[in-house]
Backbone:
């Protein structure tokens, strides 16, 4: 008789708790991402594209050859010279040498350069320069400049900041989703345990009269 009671109790527990246990691993649907807030773009700050009277220095100025009044190339533009107001005052011209070896840097005032355009091609000339003049000039003093190590450190920091900015929100969302899933699993497991206990008690109550000894 005790075996029958125990079997009935186990069957009741399994019957009642199975659906609840099955719910401990529900199919989860990713929560919809909140709609991005509309961003107001400030006026008078950004460009959409180059205008007809504009050009990027890297495309047409930096790296461009400079010729003298005879049309002979005397060097190429390596960099721009800026003033304390962040305005272009001149260019740094690389002269002489072969493929950069033995090259001398010369500072040139921007106003001394002349720009002409023919057949869609821009020519930059420095009429005041000649071979003898270039040779007589002292090398341009760069003054304080960043070392290769400092430049590398700046790039690493920029990359790190971009990574944090991009991954931060995603990481926080994933962490929150995982926490919510864990909390739901705990609730479902607790509910299943409570139902199992109730089923055992019900089975005991039903089996009690049958277990009583006959008079």
Residues:
């Amino acid at each position: 008789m005790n075996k029958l009671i125990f079997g009935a109790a186990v069957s009741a527990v399994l019957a009642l708790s199975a659906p609840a246990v099955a719910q401990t691993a529900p199919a989860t649907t990713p929560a919809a991402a909140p709609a991005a807030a509309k961003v107001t773009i400030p006026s008078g700050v950004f460009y959409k594209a180059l205008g007809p009277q504009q050009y990027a220095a890297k495309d047409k100025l930096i790296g461009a050859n400079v010729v003298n009044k005879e049309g002979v190339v005397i060097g190429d533009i390596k960099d721009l010279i800026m003033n304390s107001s962040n305005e272009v005052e001149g260019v740094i011209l690389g002269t002489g040498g072969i493929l950069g070896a033995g090259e001398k840097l010369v500072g040139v005032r921007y106003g001394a350069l002349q720009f002409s355009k023919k057949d869609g091609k821009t020519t930059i000339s420095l009429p005041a320069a000649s071979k003898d003049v270039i040779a007589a000039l002292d090398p341009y003093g760069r003054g304080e400049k960043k070392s290769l190590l400092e430049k590398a450190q700046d790039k690493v920091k920029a990359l790190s900041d971009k990574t944090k900015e991009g991954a931060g929100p995603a990481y926080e969302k994933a962490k929150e989703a995982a926490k919510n899933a864990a909390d739901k699993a705990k609730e479902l497991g607790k509910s299943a345990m409570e139902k199992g206990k109730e089923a055992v008690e019900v089975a005991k109550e039903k089996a009690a009269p049958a277990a009583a000894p006959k008079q």
Observations:
- The chain is about 45% helix and 15% strand.
- The chain has a mean pLDDT of 77.
- Strands lie at 65-67, 73-82, 88-95, 104-109, 114-118, 121-125.
